[in-house]
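dumping this here before i forget
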Amino acid sequence: MYKINCLNPIASVGLNLLTEDYEKVDNFAEADAVLVRSAAMHNTEMPEQLLAVARAGAGVNNIPLDVCADKGIVVFNTPGANANGVKELVIAAMLLASRDIAGGIEWVKSAKNEADIAKLAEKTKKNFAGSEIMGKTLGVIGLGAIGAKVANAALSLGMEVIGYDPFLSVTGALALSRRVQVVKTLDEIYAACDYITIHVPALKDTTGMINAESIAKMKDNVVIINLARDLLVNEGDMAEALKSGKVKKYVTDFPNPVSANMEGAIVIPHLGASTEESEDNCAVMAVKQLREYLENGNIVNSVNYPNCSNGICTHAGRVTILHKNIPNMLTQFTAAFAKDGVNISEMVNKSRGEYAYTILDYDSESPATIVEDLMKIDGVIKARVIK
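structure:
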């Protein structure tokens, strides 16, 4: 029986996938696995028995990844599950920035008691006039699940699209229309685009990537859309660019005391993945990944350990080992089985940075002390008998 704790409300369509082998508990300290959305976990003491954290969403800034890795807690996310919801909001953001729809709506509210509101509207509407996005050039920074969908949708709206992603995967490339021009440098995006939308994680190299220096390379009256992470934009530099008119509009999904008071910014209350469909997709994906890891030992979409799978175990037993990525580990693992005469029939090993993961399937019953024996090996973080 696995105990599951939800730090945030998780869509029932996902929780309903849990079988009678799972118990939902309210106490985090009792949990074998955790489902989370936006709850901050950095100051949370991780229980010794905790095996996994599944984030029902893509970003994992709220989870202490290194702490979890050191404790043998595998952290999952759900890339692509909310991609369509975010894509649609990007399209809405471009339209809101191009035409003063929000300003027009506010004017109607202010004039709702005027008897001749229809005539006043005809006189006033020129104050809210804008431009169309058809024929304009959109730059998409990051061509993952969301970025590719945004690029393809913009093409359908008659825009020219330029994309940039130095880590473009084969899967990402196949999802991208051939009409998207993929460039090798960000400067090419900055120089050519009327609209720029960002879809990259907040890493050391991307934090503050939109700043005074990069904005200076952009076209005048550029529109910048950031529905990815607030840290990607230097908000002080953005405020200055809006005041000077260099940037026409800044659309962000991250309200804070700076952005909410930024003249020329359109600030949305973090609605990117806040659709019924996205929340359902994320919940289903997160629960499926948790079950695959807990029941079969396979890792899919981890952000702190390597993805590693050996399917469903068809042999007598399976042991999984989370360990440091250092020499001579596999030899020591096989020796731990060999001393008891157990033959290893299949072995899969993957590494990611300083961490690694090994799945061992064997032909006979495992020794009662196998986990204890494996944990004695220097560099082993956690070992678990799956079957």
